[in-house]
Amino acid sequence: MAIKVLLVDDHLMVRKGLRLFLHTQPDIDIIGEAENGKEALEKTAELNPDVVLMDLIMPEMDGIEATKEIKTTFPKVKVIVLTSFSDQDHVLPAIRAGAEGYQLKDIDPEELVKTIRGAYKGERQLHPQATNQLLTHVTSGSATKESDEPGIEVLTPREQEVLEQISLGKSNKEIARDLFITEKTVKTHVSSILSKLELHDRTQAALYATRKGWYNT
């Protein structure tokens, strides 16, 4: 089954370029386009895409707000931000809004395809510059004081194993395979880890574990 993709960008030439390349991929189907966040919401409701490629700076409704609305109303839809901005003022709000991916428009086309496929499978895909911004944030004074943060002791031994796998960037399927448990069990552990560590998503968990020096990756 092909991955249904919705293109969202206020520049027609960008959308045409994306459509031209992605159309050559046998497992990707471009089902629609939108030129702003408001239209993206309407198209998402109408077309039910698997993945939305989302620009950030657009008229009427920007990509951050559109991502929030899509993830709230259509939680199964994966959102990949595709933008020219790699600073914290754009990266952090996009991740907090629920975006599964954050890539820059200078991305190699083949890497973009990998990002779409990965997001479709539930993997978070971030451009190295976006990852650096997140690391800078969690190690800066804007992050919660370490003395107030939960320690690894709040996790069960199995949850610690799962967290280590997350910090290595592995998907739920890969974790299930390596730890000889089901994907459903992995999802349960991930949910528990996020709750206990007071985090929002697995990317934050991976960065948190790395910053704490809990694992040598």
UniProtKB/TrEMBL annotation:
The keyword Oxidoreductase does not apply. GO terms for molecular function: DNA binding. The modification 4-aspartylphosphate is found at D55. GO terms for biological process: phosphorelay signal transduction system; regulation of DNA-templated transcription. Residues 4-120 form the Response regulatory domain. It comes from the Bacteria. The keyword Phosphoprotein applies. Gene3D superfamilies: 3.40.50.2300. SUPFAM superfamilies: C-terminal effector domain of the bipartite response regulators, CheY-like. SMART domains: HTH_LUXR, REC. Residues 148-213 form the HTH luxR-type domain. Keywords: DNA-binding, Phosphoprotein, Transcription, Transcription regulation. InterPro entries: CheY-like_superfamily, NreC/VraR/RcsB-like_REC, Sig_transdc_resp-reg_C-effctor, Sig_transdc_resp-reg_receiver, Tscrpt_reg_LuxR_C, WalR-like. GO terms for cellular component: cytoplasm. This is Response regulator transcription factor. It comes from Exobacillus caeni.
